[in-house]
## 1
Amino acid sequence: MARLRRLGVVKGVRELRLPSAAPEASRPAGAPRRGPLSARGALEQLLPGGRVVESDDGGCFVIDRVYATDHRHGGDALADLLGSRPAAGAPYVREPRLEALDFRDFLFLDTETTGLAGAGTLAFMVGVAYFEPRAGGDDVDVEDDVLVVRQYFLRDHGDERAMLRQLDALLAARAGLITFNGRSFDVPLLDNRYLMNRLPSRLLDLPHIDLLPPARRLFRARLGSCALSSLERTLLGLERSHADVPGALIPALYYQYLRTGDVGELAGVFYHNEMDMLSMVTLAARIFRQLEASCCDDPLDQISLARWQADLGLGERAEATLRASLDGDLPFETYHQALYRLAALLKAGGRRDEAVVVWQQIAHTSSDDVSAHVELAKHYEWVERNAAEALAWTERALALVGRWTLTPNTRLIRAELAHRRERLVRKQS
């Protein structure tokens, strides 16, 4: 004990008193809040149309923005998505429940959080978007639909339970969920917050379309980065205004608001989240239009789609996609990529004779690629048992490699071809 006292411990555990309950915990409904929540009026001034929705669980700041479906976001209209069917994506995202749904049944969801991971990470803003009939309209034609973008904002941590309750009521009215990287981040985070608040969660039960994996499968070969901000610039033709704030700064801006009550920097956060929601709608339109038609806007994307179809075991669809791309006006390099994919597909399907024709087409039109020559040499040596023909294709490959710049990889390819030639010469003799 004396040693503990020398270290500064002057009371034992039994003598310590728990702090009294925080004022917020015992705050009756409707009572004024303290700290940043005194900026309630400032929030409503900053974001006209925003309101605080009160309930038995407390209050939460909510703002709605309504867009006509002919609104253009970058190069696309919001209505473009309503011309596609979720069922087109069912085999790609492996979600058979999409067959019975319409995009009007879905809720788009995106969060702004206090961090990237950990039990203490909080979604202080939840953005959602959904299509609904225009007020007063009886039909569900595109012209009568609007897109509602709704944002829930935590004025402090005490608003979380109220926000989750309101979000759940909206989820209950929707049959599916669309996110961007939500399967790995947004949905697990929110599901955990429901758990922490001892509330039931339906997030994991809904059919879920995460747009990030399809975007990577379709566009990464051509565009490289498939971050949403990058896709906006390179695919959707969108440049955000100066009102936007970088996503990396958003947690710090929220903490600043909690410390000071100053709402001045929050407008950029609301704008950032709103743009994310609109971009998800138009990105979904781009993706599903191409999945539905098995036809992409760019030849490289077409080849990527065919590869995706082949990986899913959709061989007939992949072949049709590739043959459709070959009928177009392709750059020479892209043309060869499509032919290689087609030959590999035919070979895997046991249609070697057709694959041989494609390999020969590649070999006769290529001046610096020996892959098709090697495939033909293998075919004639091991399938046709024609060593002479296999040797001829090997010699042609060696002649091409002989013109290459000498590199370690060139030496390796040359050595492998020379070894194959020696073996074929022995077979002939």
Note: Residues 266-293 form the longest helix (28 residues).
## 2
Amino acid sequence: MIVYTGQSLYQAADCPDFTGDIICMDEQLPLTGVKIVDLSTYAAVPAAARILADWGANVIKVESFKGDSWRRYGEIAQVPCTEDENPCWDVNNSNKRSISLNLRTEKGMEILHRLLADADVFMTNYRMTALRAMSLTWKVLHQTYPRLIWGHLSGYGNKGPEAERPGFDIAAFWARSGLMQDYGQPGMAPLTPFHAVGDMTTGSIMAGGLCAALYKQARTGKGDKVEISLLGTASWLTGFPAVAAQKAYGNVYPRKRNEQPSPVCIPYECADGEWLELCIMDYERYYPALCHILDLDTLIDDERFNTFAAVQCHAGEFIDLVQRAFLKKKRADWGPVLTAADIVYDNVGHFRDITENQQAWANGNLYERHFNNGRSAVLPNTPITFEEARRPASPAPLLGEHSREILREYGYTDEEIEEYIARGIVRDHAET
């Protein structure tokens, strides 16, 4: 079924009978009618834009002639990154359209401003040096387009001595925050995190900030400046350990496994070599049940362990006892008894396990993407769902795939479009 709202035009992924140029969208999506210009690269801002696109926004991704560098990320991740199969590109760029512009030309900038003139949001992670050179700063754009929301994501924030410093998530998010060092074990090399976890987290928060600005825009008719950084997000997410590590409180990280502040909030190995994570927050309430499950009833009244204050002083001893108990059974055997006792736990899994997780499938967290080469991959959906509608994930756009379509929507004639392509102002995918 094709639904046309009269504002923004899209072709939904689940419209197999669709043959025209008009795009369909569900009018129940909360951001239907919102227009967004996405001038960004890599992962964080594209992730934010993907979320907003899934919520119904008309997201136009503006790319250089070389395209967003993330198109080639598969080379690092060791997955395909061709036009026929590019799963990493799909994750952050589904449900968008791509226009490829040469912003080094006056006409290219003119086209960008045509897009901005009726846009609700402009979002970017270009460095401020580049934005100033192109006159795309908040101050300039706010004067020209007072209702436009300006969203900017940086590595380290737009103030201070490192404002212009480039930053990827493994540097500004993982390394600087302490996550790499202090979530490991003393004497071990810092963790080597997988790319883009910090990007995706920061992008998700950015999407929320932009929605708050859209609410203000709807009330007042005025735009706003929305800024976020990888370092700022990491500072927020590491708030609890960062507080605990202050000199006033004396907590030292990284900690050895047998020195953890709570011995019932750590992983334990089972008989088959698999691990499970206990997560008991109310220690005194669940301590007797845990002892009973582990056949450690003699410890229920042991004054070394039967209060949280006491066990913190004897954590190493308790961890050793609990670990020996868990090694008596396979992980699959522990699950039912822990669940029966209402004890929170989970299996310590692997990345590969997520795509086969039936709970994730049941809640629409995953979908299967079929590529043009006949292969397929399981990809994640953005995590928010709504009662009335969920926009299906369409294939992420090829470079310049929608250049002609978008230019026609903004009043350019076919003759003008052909001229711009010939002059190297616009790149159309069909011409490459």
Note: Residues 275-347 form a domain with the formyl-coa transferase, domain 3 fold (CATH 3.30.1540).
## 3
Amino acid sequence: MKSEWGRRDVFRAAMLAVPAFAVAQTMMPGRASATTIDPSCEVPADPVPTPAPEAPASATGAYGPAGSHWPARTPEPGDAFDLVVEVEPNWWTIQNAIADAIQQQPQGKIKIAVKPGVFDYGYGAGSTDYGVLHGINAGGRTWRVLVVPRDGWGTVTASGTIAQASSRGYAFVSVSGISVVGFDFSGQAVLVRDAQDFALAWSTVGQLNITANNANTSGVEFVECVLPNQVDDDTDRMAFRIANNYSIDGVSLLGCYVAPAYKAAGSSSHCDTFQASRSSGSGGIRNLRFEDSVFFQSSSQVLMMERTSGVSLAHSAFIGGLRGTGRYPIGAGRHVMTAQNTLWGKTTDPVTNATASDSFIAGSIRGWNFASASNTVVSHNPPTPASGEFTVDDAYAAADQALPQSWYDANCPMPDAARLATIWAAL
């Protein structure tokens, strides 16, 4: 998080002042692939949700992107730069420009300004694929290198689709000291692998993952990363995966928005909104911070985690069951959830040392051990934290009731292109 907000604070205050956010001044109901499939995820006899009661807006601001978060140690586009390099939307060109720039300016502010256009296909977003940016060591500098569209968000886009992610997705591999900000990857998958001190910010993405399988991954920030559209696919929307004794440590998700994935009816695939898992070795996943973010339930879980400790839920919303189907309806031929698996872990391998503050958790919590809880609303049956307590609001206990449109508008405005162009206008 930046220490000086100024302009963004003023802008966010203005955004929160519009009528949609003035619904109430009281505390809201919250602010809020390698795992066993829950056998309770079956098609109900009557999948049609009924509207939930009206809900007041969050008194302290909406969840999701607001143009108020910025990656650490990253100059803003309007800053005075020591070096600005304009490049075509070509990954090799960007890679070479970064390498040359950090030689010219070892400690200066550097902006790589990408001209409007479309990136070519990547080399895949799998666990062994070569990166579109690969092996760039800009770590240890005062400022991260800023890679940003010259003409703002929406002017540089991706090629391909999520279905092509395995062969054409985008991977950032073994990179450090770089902030990639302001790109439209909404139709494609992005993977950050074996990276340190790296940020992806103010960007739309189709699928977003982190893997550590050849080096420890640390100091990664996802800042206002937006996955706005539901996908009808048997896939996790976000996944943090470790293997070969490597770990993921210290990842921040700030102002993020993640829509669901709905698998086909009858599919045995596991389909989470966010999954943290280990496929081999003794590594762990530690120190994850979810702040000002919102996650909707996919066909399986909202947050599914194993081998994970130190998870902070701060002013974030996790919407389980059919509560999110008022915004993201389940189409014909897709699996309809009967379970409301919101925060999920193995009872034999629980998430440890979790904290919750100023958040909204609608749905079931299992396999999570909380060190503390404060000012956090849950729908029902909360765990007992070591310190503090959860607040139960049984108005949200019914898993088959969609939240009303007014709740979405007030608490997590739809991050469509028009809204993003407004809140990210500083690009």
Note: The longest strand covers residues 196-212.
## 4
Amino acid sequence: MEALTVFILVISFFLLIGIGTPVAWSIAISSLLTLLINLPSLAALTTIAQRMATGLDSFTLLAIPFFILSGQLMTHGGIAERLIRFAKSLIGTLPGGLALINIISAMMMGAIAGSAMASASAIGGILGPEMEKEGYDKEYGAAVNITSSTMGLVIPPSNILIVYSLASGGVSIAALFLAGYLPGMLTCFFLMLVASIWAKRKGYPISQRSSIKEIFSSLISALPSLFLLFIVIGGIVAGFFTATEASAIAVLYTLILGVIYNQIKFKNLSKIFLDSSKTSAIVLLLIACSMSMSWVMSYENIPQNLSDFLVGISDNKIIILLMINLILLFVGIFMDMTPAVLIFTPIFLPVVKSIGIDPIQFGIIMVVNLCIGLCTPPVGSVLFVGIGVAKTSIEKVIKPLLPLFIAMILALGLITYFPQITLWLPEKFGF
């Protein structure tokens, strides 16, 4: 019976995805079909509806719509241009300077806006044409923009880390936020290294050195935007406010900043609010449906069976982590981050706990894995945004993408097997 439930859950889900059913509905319908094996139809329908409603009944989840709105305000508030100018003044003279500027800017924009797609769109739209004008290959610029934009999801404030906290049963959001800094910056360092080597081999031009005055001026211009990270993270870590309260403060701060920059007008607010509402509705529906699937899997004892299976193959920590990474990389190819975190956290968290892995570290491992998935077809949302902005195709971008993929996977390996990269900063703050 257990094998049958797994078969129906997996096959129905992929069949629904294959015929073009939206991911959220695919999750809900496959969960319902699985539950119908053991329950009458009315009981199954009622249970799914109840689990969806219960899944959204969380104060912590309120942070997600607020951070989405804050990200929209940031995107429309002239933040990207200031971050690019600051990055250019610092590293524009290095080999592949514009590519490195793209990586730094996308990382900062992704962290501040809380959206990889927003970062890829904003940074790619500004830097893409400039890179092309300077002699960079369009596809190379797109590949750099796509991979670097995802790292903003590891560096807080990050909606996906909030989702993981919910799925894990209450891992500290403050600890997760602190844990994301070093892994995110490490991955960006590897991306910069590969981008620089590629640019040097191709002979791409180097920008003129910026004066101290220009560096200082660009820093002052970007500082109000960067200060948001200090307010949000500092306030949460210091205990001044919760993640949800921090998200509301972020909205107020970004709104005031956009008005001061004269980038956000009253007439634009309705569109910003509407776009934020649409995105929030999609994300929250995904969460609700994924919570119902998590409950169904728990009811059918699937996580425990899979845990026993993995431990039965090997009790070696290195092997188990390798298998989990490979599964998550595969999952990331086909599934968006939010449902993947909600579905697979209850499955893998007991396994990694049993071999002594800290839930904080595993949260970062999972997010980095799924960030790589955002860059891969067929469901890589950031990939499609990046090639759309660059006006190119997947086939042409694959070649420059491959060494950047390798860089991200190498960083993932270090994050997986060297826990202090993730845990050092939370431990310094007492988590």
Note: The chain has two domains: 1-57, 60-285+301-428.
